Amino acid sequence: MENVRQLDYHGDMAKNPPLPKKPELMREPLTERNFHLDFLRVTEAAALSSARWVGKGNRDAADQAACEAMRTSLGEINMCGVIVIGEGERDEAPMLYIGEKLGSGDGPEVQIAVDPLEGTNLCANGTPNAISVLAATISGEGYLMHAPDCYMEKLVVGQECVGVVDITLPPRVNVRLMAKALGKDVDELIIGVLERPRHDSLIDEIRDAGARVHLVPDGDLSVAIAALDPEAGIDGLMGIGGAPEGVISAAAVLCCGGEMQARLKFTNDDQRERANKMVGGDVERVFHTEDLASGNVMFAATGITSGDLLKGVRYKRGYALTESIVMRAKSGTIRRIETTHRYSSQLEY
């Protein structure tokens, strides 16, 4: 007969309690996965690769380096990704073109808007505000407008000015409304404007109203995002820039709780026809933040050259430093991340 020892619960069991059952590992549902660190690595890779070309005067090489690094990194993520805003149409760009599918093929469907190198001239000339940027959303959980390749008039303000401005009003009026909402004198206000001849009258009107103008030589995306940060020293963005970049800016605006208003601007009938097919509805209407980006949107950007938003890539002995910003609309979190990258093959693609 097998000798079985009976345990006294209040004696032996109290001294030697049984180990709890190991809980079964619960996999996080794919649609609940937080991709923000994956996307951070993507913009970091693009920034590190293009930073090798900072100040070397070769904008095409810098852009190619960023594109190759970003595409390689996106291909390693467990997702069924598709580019909705990228480097152009299939017949114009060899990679990161609109409609290109990226990722491992496993996981949720993800819509991705990218600008591997925002500010190619800035990078080539070693001037401020070159960044690598990405916005994304899981299909069915969020929306990014498929913007046509045309211009877009933009008005971007931070949280304190939400509901205050109106893009249909003269800039001088919006400047005064912003100053009142921010509790500033008008002459303390700083408005970011892309430095282009088309903005000469806008710049004059802002200055005549008493505000100051922060001129940007290329790429308004980083300044649009800086306008959302009270510590950045930029109070708003006005003017006309690229429509695809406007959608990416709207993703950051959504995450930060700011406000963006926009109107599409066309230089020919082909652009207008294309916008009708892609956007639908009245293409002359005012687009608000959630017309451009809505729902569970994620945003990541890494600095290439130091500027209004982020520090650029800095090289030390044996390693490089990057500064990035990562945002999630769903949680409302905004993270600034400084990363140390030891020199290895992953710095170049």
- How large is the share of residues in beta strands? 25-35%
- Helix count, per DSSP? 10
Helix fraction bin: 25-40%
Number of domains: 2
**Rounded radius of gyration (Å):** 24 Å
Within CATH, the superfamily of the largest domain carries the name: Fructose-1,6-Bisphosphatase, subunit A, domain 1
Compact overview of the structure:
With 349 residues, this protein is α+β, with helices and mostly antiparallel strands. The chain is built from ten helices and 14 strands.
Produce the secondary structure layout.
Elements (H helix, E strand, L loop, with lengths): L11 H4 L20 H16 L7 H17 L4 E6 L15 E2 L6 E10 L1 H6 L5 E14 L6 E7 L13 H12 L7 E5 L5 H9 L3 E5 L4 H6 L9 E7 H14 L2 E7 L3 H10 L8 E2 H4 E11 L10 E3 L2 E10 L4 E10 L7
Parallel strand pairs: 1-3, 6-7, 6-8
Antiparallel strand pairs: 1-2, 3-4, 4-11, 5-8, 5-9, 9-10, 11-13, 12-13, 13-14
Can you walk through the features of this model?
The chain has 349 residues and is α+β, with helices and mostly antiparallel strands. The chain is built from ten helices and 14 strands. Strands 1, 2, 3, 4, 11, 12, 13 and 14 form an eight-stranded mixed beta sheet that branches. The chain has a six-stranded mixed beta sheet with strand order 7-6-8-5-9-10, with helices on both faces. 45% of the residues are buried. Residues 1-15 and 19-32 have low confidence and may be disordered.
